[in-house]
């Protein structure tokens, strides 16, 4: 989309974009290579108080500054333009240029990506970012682009997901989740993870989750602790069990046609802005994770340790003994696990 006007939180829906090969580019300022002015529309379901929600504005501000206004970004947050259940179709159709995606949302078009949705594939933040923001990630993201027409540009740390319940109950092993209606995001990959953990998964969009917890539609949910704080789930929950089942990330993802219409210089600017957003998001979530348990205890929540080894064994065996893993690159999985 060619244009110069952009602002985060704009209330008016944009026209379809018409801007924007690889997730890398030159930062040359050669005027012949800069390209025509471009406006990118960036829609996310996250709230601005989430670290990745705030990182959207870091991306916008950085990109507009380093491009000298050649690229502007129109931001929508909190699902105000597209919700989680519609944003991927909008991205593929070119109705929006950028969203936050993740492995779980990309498995319908690329079943092999479900490997990255499995619990306990990544052992830590350092493990995850070394894989997804390194050479393996570049190859994975390019293959997704070839298959689906949308290109992830990197991986932002969302946090390590834990189980939280509306009752005060310790979840120590998968057997303790039997009969628990656990909210999961609305995709087959997420639902399978809930089953693999031993729960009864119930798919509910994030924007509806607080009410679902408040009304008892679900018994609990899984999210990183910073999200429990920022979304105020602690107001309607009583306990957290530290299952550490998924080192979670979100992937800023661009429509491939939009990307391919950018010059190499513009692509370089975009990637610099992606990296600025990643650093801001990761640093904030790591800091919050180190502090948030004390806050949640002050709100009256009980925090319990889970038997992580028991969960890891149960979850990975469930995946590997199910047809869902038939499309996985087992050699790649072994390579990833060896990098922990």
UniProtKB/TrEMBL annotation:
The main location class comes to other
Which CDD domains does the UniProt entry name for this protein? PBP2_TRAP_Siap
Region described as Disordered: spans on this chain: 8-32
Q: Compositional bias (Low complexity) spans?
A: 15-29
Q: Which UniProt keywords apply?
A: Signal, Transport
Q: Name one GO biological process term.
A: transmembrane transport
> Heme as a keyword?
no
Domain of life, per UniProt, equals Bacteria
Cross-referenced Pfam families: DctP (PF03480)
Localization terms from the record: Cell envelope
Report the GO terms under cellular component: outer membrane-bounded periplasmic space
Which NCBIfam families does its entry note?
Answer: dctP (TIGR00787), TRAP_S1 (NF037995)
Query: Family assignment?
Result: Belongs to the bacterial solute-binding protein 7 family.
Entry-linked PANTHER family = PTHR33376, SIALIC ACID-BINDING PERIPLASMIC PROTEIN SIAP
Q: What is this protein called?
A: Sialic acid TRAP transporter substrate-binding protein SiaP
Q: Which organism is it from?
A: Flintibacter faecis
Q: What is the lineage of its organism?
A: Bacteria, Bacillati, Bacillota, Clostridia, Eubacteriales
């Amino acid at each position: 989309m060619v244009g110069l006007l952009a602002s985060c939180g704009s209330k008016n829906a944009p026209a379809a974009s018409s801007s924007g090969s690889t997730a890398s580019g030159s930062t040359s300022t050669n005027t012949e290579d800069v390209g025509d002015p471009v406006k990118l529309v960036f829609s996310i379901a996250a709230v601005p108080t989430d670290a990745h929600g705030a990182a959207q504005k870091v991306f916008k501000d950085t990109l507009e500054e380093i491009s000298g206004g050649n690229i502007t970004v129109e931001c929508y947050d909190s699902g105000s333009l597209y919700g989680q259940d519609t944003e991927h179709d909008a991205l593929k159709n070119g109705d929006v240029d950028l969203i936050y995606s993740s492995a779980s949302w990309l498995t319908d078009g690329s079943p092999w990506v479900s490997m990255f949705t499995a619990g306990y594939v990544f052992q830590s933040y350092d493990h995850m970012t070394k894989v997804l923001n390194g050479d393996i990630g570049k190859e994975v993201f390019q293959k997704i682009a070839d298959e689906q027409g949308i290109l992830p540009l990197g991986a932002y740390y969302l946090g390590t997901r834990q189980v939280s319940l509306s009752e005060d109950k310790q979840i120590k092993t998968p057997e303790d989740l039997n009969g628990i209606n656990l909210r999961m995001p609305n995709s087959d990959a997420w639902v399978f993870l809930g089953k693999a953990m031993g729960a009864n998964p119930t798919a509910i969009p994030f924007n509806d989750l607080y009410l679902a917890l408040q009304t008892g539609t679900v018994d609990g949910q899984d999210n990183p602790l910073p999200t429990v704080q920022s979304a105020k789930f602690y107001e309607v929950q009583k306990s957290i069990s530290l299952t550490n089942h998924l080192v979670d990330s979100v992937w800023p993802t661009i429509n491939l046609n939009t990307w391919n219409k950018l010059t190499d210089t513009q692509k370089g600017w975009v990637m610099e802005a992606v990296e600025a957003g990643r650093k801001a998001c990761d640093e904030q979530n790591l800091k919050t994770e180190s502090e948030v348990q004390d806050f949640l205890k002050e709100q009256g929540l009980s925090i319990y340790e889970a038997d992580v080894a028991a969960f890891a064994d149960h979850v990975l065996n469930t995946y590997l003994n199910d047809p869902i893993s038939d499309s996985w690159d087992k050699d790649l999985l072994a390579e990833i696990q060896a990098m922990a």
